[in-house]
Design a protein that fits this description.
Layout lengths: L5 H10 L5 E7 L17 E4 L8 E6 L10 E8 L3 H10 L1 E5 L3 E9 L5
Length: about 120
């Protein structure tokens, strides 16, 4: 996987990317310990099948043109830096967590390439 320069380049790449899995993503609200600001298109973070960071994989939600706010839930595609290896692990687990210095959200896998 090759990204362009910075957040803008990743956002452009992700707009046209085929998701490696589709999940119902919920960002924790700020009050639940989540982020204070929205995640923009092109953003990514380590993802873990368990609520620890012993094994994490870089994941990028496909947000299109619209940022996602703390407390929001949305069905999104995901692309992983490690590709199919990470997607297979998360499909088997059925869910995964998003890490950014703390757990900021969770995703429930709904399929491989179902409509978003």
């Amino acid at each position: 996987m090759v990204f362009g320069d910075g957040l803008k380049g990743r956002a452009e790449f992700l707009r046209n990317a085929k998701p490696e899995l589709v999940a119902d993503l919920r960002l924790y609200s700020t009050e639940e310990g989540g982020r204070k600001s929205p995640i923009p298109p092109g953003w990514g973070c380590p993802c873990s099948a368990e609520r620890n960071t012993n094994e994490a994989w870089d994941g990028f939600p496909i947000l299109g043109e619209q940022e996602m706010r703390p407390g929001e839930a949305r069905r999104v595609g995901f692309v992983f830096l490690s590709g199919e290896a990470a997607a297979l692990l998360f499909r088997r687990a059925g869910s995964f967590y998003l890490w950014e210095g703390r757990f900021i959200g969770e995703a429930t896998v709904v399929g491989r390439e179902t409509s978003i």
